[in-house]
Specification:
By secondary structure, this protein is of the alpha+beta class. It has one domain. It is 20% helix and 34% strand. The chain has a six-stranded antiparallel beta sheet with strand order 2-3-1-6-5-4. Strands 7-8 form a two-stranded antiparallel sheet. A two-stranded antiparallel ribbon has the order 9-10. Strand 9 and strand 10 form a beta hairpin. The two termini are 30 Å apart.
Length: 176
């Protein structure tokens, strides 16, 4: 830890993107019954949930949120996220865990499709999380989530990772 600033000199800054589908009768019940349980499982959310009603499937809501995480080692980032995910459900398919072995955080993604959703809150249908380097700022009024502090990724993206073009003079940023 740096004696003057209190920050870790070799800290890894990363963010987690959460996308959670919940089946419930209405938005009021989603907010009063389901959302507190999901928020507690994910602990430490610094942003409000972005809530979208699925137009084609009545009663299905998509919840989106981000978490910023900091750690000295890759496992300080990945392991707490896995604990949070497993609090919601235990049937995850996760790729990118080789990042734990090689000590370089590039991209970890987990997906959980629940075949028989519970009738008890939270009634989860499916979930996705992604972990990448960088830091997320609060959602802009236009609905975008700005990502900053993205390190230069000179290597090719992993399978399934999207390269979004940046401004003409900035090349591109690796974003989920």
């Amino acid at each position: 830890m740096h004696p003057m600033t209190g920050s870790m000199s070799n800290e890894i800054k990363a963010y987690v993107w959460w996308s959670v589908y919940v089946k419930t009768s209405n938005k009021r019940k989603l907010k009063s019954t389901h959302l507190p349980l999901i928020t507690a499982a994910l602990e430490g959310l610094e942003f409000d949930w972005q809530i979208e009603a699925e137009k084609e499937h009545h009663g299905l809501y998509r919840l989106i949120n981000y978490q910023n995480v900091v750690g000295e080692k890759v496992e300080d980032i990945i392991v707490p996220v896995l604990r949070r995910a497993y609090r919601l459900h235990t049937d995850w398919r996760i790729s990118g865990l080789e990042d734990l072995a090689n000590g370089k955080l590039v991209h970890v993604i987990g997906r959980c499709d629940i075949r028989t959703p519970s009738h008890e809150p939270p009634s989860l249908e499916s979930m996705v999380f992604e972990i990448e380097r960088g830091r997320v700022l609060p959602m802009r009024p236009d609905g975008g989530w700005p990502v900053v502090d993205v390190p230069d990724q000179s290597s090719s993206p992993k399978s399934g990772q999207i390269v979004w073009p940046g401004p003409p003079d900035a090349g591109g940023q690796l974003l989920g």
